[in-house]
Amino acid sequence: MPSFHTIEFNQRGISLISARRQSKSNERTYNSVGKSLSIYLIHFCLGAKVTKDFTEKLPGWAFRLDFELNGEPHYTYRTSENTKDIVFDGKEMKVTSFNKKMGELVFGLTGSEQFLSYRTLITRFIRQGKSGYTSFDRFQPKETTPTDIVNTSYLLGLDVDRLLHKVQLKSDDDLLKTQEKNLSKDPVMRSLLLGTGRAEDIDLRLLDLDKQIEKLQVDINGFVIAEDYGEIKKEADAISMSLHQWRNEASKCRIALENVGKSMQRRPDIKKQSLLNFFEEANVSLGEMVVKHLEDVERFNERLLDDRARILAEQQSRYERQLTEAEAKISVLEQQENEKLQYLNSHGALDDYTRLTELIADCRSKKEKLEQYKVLQKSYKQKREELKRTIADENLKTQVYLDNISELVNRHMVYFHDLVRTFYSDKTAGLQIINNEGVNKQRFDLVARISDDSGDGVNETKIFCFDWTMLTAQQQHDVKFLVHDSRIISETDPRQVATMLRNADRICKEEDMQYVLTVNESSLDMLKKEMSEEEYQDLVINNEVLKLTDISDSDKLLGIQVDLKYEFEK
């Protein structure tokens, strides 16, 4: 687009992209003129992800970046509308393919590395967004462990395989903890293997199951299946029912005989003579007709008693016959019932046999599950002990490794130390690579320390020194530039900012490198007080490759007013 302000970086040394406030209006500011956007556009042309806002608000735009790699010129060209493709040296390809190719060319990646990629590595030299300036070892938003430590360790020349091995050990440990937790607490797993019992009672339950299985097996071994079991059972039931009826009949007969016996013992208490004696004693004279009548009554009663005795005797005889018959039936039926029951007790139905086999199968299944639980418990315990030994062994090996590369580690430490001392001659400083012996995903702890580093600007100084240490180490990469946003100097003492520029200028000349920095006018004004006119001219004025102002929209980077959200932040 013709309104865009092309940036021509100095091939060697410092390149400043400055934002100056030239309007007298209080409403205008040098913020949002395009300083940070210029850094984002570098990322965009080097295959970064794109925000939706960027594609929607810049339709029809395209950006080109020219760069050198090992002395050979290259360029990329990418549009805001077709962000999945990129043109590399005139050849259109997918951004994913471009990133893979750049990973090979710049960092020697094969594409099979874990946690390592061209994009995560290049960001170490072009920090992204506000979060990229919160700590020396954090370079972009949303980057988590172990990606952060793997990429930084790679660029410091450390053995990343050791780190990846520890990451795997930590993953194994996490998986083992999850499995153990599921085994002991997960309701589904507990129900499947333990049922409703307690884990502490497994041995007791296994003993009970062994006894049950043993008894059931004996029953099964001695079980004789009767094919006519059902018929015999029906016959036995019929006999039992008939026996019950005859026993009731016998009981009735005994009760009837008892009643007959009682009736036969009853006789009239008053005779004719007794009545006559009673009246004589009472001096009552009975007539001849009354006496005769009493005699008739007595004779009639005697006949009745004789008839009653005869009837009772007949009843007694009948009930005795019936009882004898019932007892005979009962005796026969009891013998038949006993024979049937003995047969049934010594034989079984197929259904009963099936139930026995089902019971023993259920007991064996429960036993197998409990034994599986015990095996898993033992297995987890063994794996945990093996893992502890492996982690301890790796800790020892890593310490030996660090001792063997002490020259490389010391070189990083000395470089960082010496660079910090140019800022603070009285502060203790150092960069340590320490063996992390914890059970985590960090094989190495990178400790960049400046005493009293809680002061304003000290963190930014630490970032500056660490980035230059990593860049100049030239370990496993061919990057020759460093890009910093104005955030690195916004809270820093002007004296330290001046030292940053002096160091950047010196290192770039010694190592044939580039340093790109965006800067606000307020910082430039403060620098004037810390530098001579000659030094200010040499380090600042001569290195301003682009001045962005707030005079009008045309003086901004894009030459237009647009509110872009182009950074991925948390």
Topology:
Blueprint: E1 13-20, H1 35-45, H2 52-57, E2 62-69, E3 72-79, E4 85-88, E5 91-94, H3 95-107, H4 118-122, H5 147-155, H6 160-185, H7 187-193, H8 202-221, H9 229-265, H10 272-281, H11 288-346, H12 350-404, H13 406-421, E6 429-435, E7 444-450, H14 458-473, E8 481-484, H15 487-490, H16 494-511, E9 514-520, H17 521-530, H18 533-539, E10 544-549
Helix pairs in contact: 6-12, 8-12, 9-11, 13-14, 14-16, 16-17
Can you give keywords for this protein?
single chain; alpha/beta; 570 residues; 4-stranded parallel sheet
Taking the sheet with the most strands, its summary is: 4 strands, parallel
Low-confidence stretches: none
Spatial gap, N to C terminus: 32 Å
Rg (C-alpha, Å): 55 Å
Q: Please tally the helical runs, counting DSSP H or I stretches of 4 or more residues.
A: 18
Mean pLDDT: 86
Tell me the fraction of residues in β-strands, as a range. Answer: 5-15%
